[in-house]
C-alpha cells in the first residue's frame, strides 16, 4: 500500500509542471482534472490504495480537512479525501439557489510563492443539487461540514430565507454535523456582514440548527475592535468557534508581484495575515475565558506551520492552496507528524 501511495505522490509531482503549464490561463481546468481523477478512483474502488495505515491507528487529536472552495459542489467523493488522510471534509460554499459566480478565468496561480488569487464570486450548484450529490455516495467515513452563504442575488430577509433553506436541506444528512457560515468572501459584498446584520442572521438561524455545530468563517483583514465584536456575538449565540481565515485583500508584493484589480489571496500570501488574526482571536478568547474553538486555515504548507497553528485553542486545521502546490504528500506528512 505504501508503495502505491508513494508512486501516486511521485506521479503528482511528475505531472504538475505539465498540468500547470497547460492550465496557466485558467487554473480551474486543473481542478476539474483532479475532480475527474478522484471520481475515477472512487468508481473503481482504487482510492483505498492510498491509505497506508491500518484503520485503528487513525489520528484523532485534531481535525484535518480540506478548506472550503476545494469541494464546492461535493463532486470529490469523501472516501477519497479520507483515504488521502483527511478526517473531516468541508463542502461548499453552498448557496441556497444555483449561482454561476464570476466569469472565467477567475483565479490565478503564483507558483514561485505558492500563492493564488481568486475572485470566484461564490459559484454553486445550489443546496438541493449538492445534497443530491452527497446522498449518491456510500455513507461518508468522515464527518461533513457544510460551508454556506446566501445566494449573492438575495438581500436582507431573502438572504436569511436562503440560508435557512440550505440548513433545512442539509441538516437531515446523517454525516453533516457542522455548518460553517462564510461571512468573509472578499469577492461578494453580500457576504461582508455588518455586525447588526450578522446579529439578525444568527438570531434567525441558530435555533434551526438542531444539534449541529456552527462555526463562522472569517476574514484575515480585520482590526481588534471588529474581532472583539465577532467574539461577543459568538458568545451571544453560543457558536462553536471560528475558522481563521479566508483569503486576504492585503496583497504583499513579495508574494503577489503584480497586484490584480480584485480577488482574495491565499497560500503563502495569506499565511502571515491568517496567523496574526488567529493570535488576535486566541488572545481575546483566552483573556475572557470564552469557550470558542479555532480552526486554523491559510497557507499551512508544512509540518512546521501546522505546529505553529495548532495551539491549545485550535481544534483543527484546513488546507486548500498548499495542496495544489505540494500535492497529497503534504497531507501524509502533517498527518504522520501527529500519529
Ligand atoms: C480557488 C479558491 C476558491 C475558494 N472558495 C471558497 C469558498 O467557496 N468559500 C470559502 O469559505 N472559502 C473559499 N476559499 C478560501 C479557502 O477556503 C481558504 O480559506 C483560503 O484559501 C486560505 O487557505 P489556503 O491558503 O489553505 O488556501 C477559496 C480559495 C481558493 C484558492
Comma- or semicolon-separated keywords:
single chain, alpha/beta, TIM Barrel, eight-stranded parallel β-sheet, 11 strands, binds flavin mononucleotide
N/C terminus separation: 18 Å
Tally of individual domains: 1
Q: Strands of the biggest beta sheet: in what spatial order?
A: 1-11-10-8-7-6-5-2
Any low-confidence stretches, pLDDT <50, length ≥5?
none
In sequence order, what are the helices and strands, one letter per element?
A: HHEHEEEHEHEHEHEEHEHEHH
- Percent of sequence in beta strands: 15-25%
CATH class: Alpha Beta
Q: Mind telling me the CATH superfamily name?
A: Aldolase class I
Please state the average pLDDT score. Answer: 92
Helix amount, in percent? Answer: 40-55%
- Ligands: flavin mononucleotide
The CATH architecture comes to: Alpha-Beta Barrel
State the major sheet. Answer: 8 strands, parallel
Gyration radius from CA atoms, angstroms: 19 Å
CATH topology, anyone? TIM Barrel
Overall number of strands: 11
Number of alpha- plus pi-helical segments: 11
Shape: globular
Structural class: alpha/beta
Amino acid at each position: 500500500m505504501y508503495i502505491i501511495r508513494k508512486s501516486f505522490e511521485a506521479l503528482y509531482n511528475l505531472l504538475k509542471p505539465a498540468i500547470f503549464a497547460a492550465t496557466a490561463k485558467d487554473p480551474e481546468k486543473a481542478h476539474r482534472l483532479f475532480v475527474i481523477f478522484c471520481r475515477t478512483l472512487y468508481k473503481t474502488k482504487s482510492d483505498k490504495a492510498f491509505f497506508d495505515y491500518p484503520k485503528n491507528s487513525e489520528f484523532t487529536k485534531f481535525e484535518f480537512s480540506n478548506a472550503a472552495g476545494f469541494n464546492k459542489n461535493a463532486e470529490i467523493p469523501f472516501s477519497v479525501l479520507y483515504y488521502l488522510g483527511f478526517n473531516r471534509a468541508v463542502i461548499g460554499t453552498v448557496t441556497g439557489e444555483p449561482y454561476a459566480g464570476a466569469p472565467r478565468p477567475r483565479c490565478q496561480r503564483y507558483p514561485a510563492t505558492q500563492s493564488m488569487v481568486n475572485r470566484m464570486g461564490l459559484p454553486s450548484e445550489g443546496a438541493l443539487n449538492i445534497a443530491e450529490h452527497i446522498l449518491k455516495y456510500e455513507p461518508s467515513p468522515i464527518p461533513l461540514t457544510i460551508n454556506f452563504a446566501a445566494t449573492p442575488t438575495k438581500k436582507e430577509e431573502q438572504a436569511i430565507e436562503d440560508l435557512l433553506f440550505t440548513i433545512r436541506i442539509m441538516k437531515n444528512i446523517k454525516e453533516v454535523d457542522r455548518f460553517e457560515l462564510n461571512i468573509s468572501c472578499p469577492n461578494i459584498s453580500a457576504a461582508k456582514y455588518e455586525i447588526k446584520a450578522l446579529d439578525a442572521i444568527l438570531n434567525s438561524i441558530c435555533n434551526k440548527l438542531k444539534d449541529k455545530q456552527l462555526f463562522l468563517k472569517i476574514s484575515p483583514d480585520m482590526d481588534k475592535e471588529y474581532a472583539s465584536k465577532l467574539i461577543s456575538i459568538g458568545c451571544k449565540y453560543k457558536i462553536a468557534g471560528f475558522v481563521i481565515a479566508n483569503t486576504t485583500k492585503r496583497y504583499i508584493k513579495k508574494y503577489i508581484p503584480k497586484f490584480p484589480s480584485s480577488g482574495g489571496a491565499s497560500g503563502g500570501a495569506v499565511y502571515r495575515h491568517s496567523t496574526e488574526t488567529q493570535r488576535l482571536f486566541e488572545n481575546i478568547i483566552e483573556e475572557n475565558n470564552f469557550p470558542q474553538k479555532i480552526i486554523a486555515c491559510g497557507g499551512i504548507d508544512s509540518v512546521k506551520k501546522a505546529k505553529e497553528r495548532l495551539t491549545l485553542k485550535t481544534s483543527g486545521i484546513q488546507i486548500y492552496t498548499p495542496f495544489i502546490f505540494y500535492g497529497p504528500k503534504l497531507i501524509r506528512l502533517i498527518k504522520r507528524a501527529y500519529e
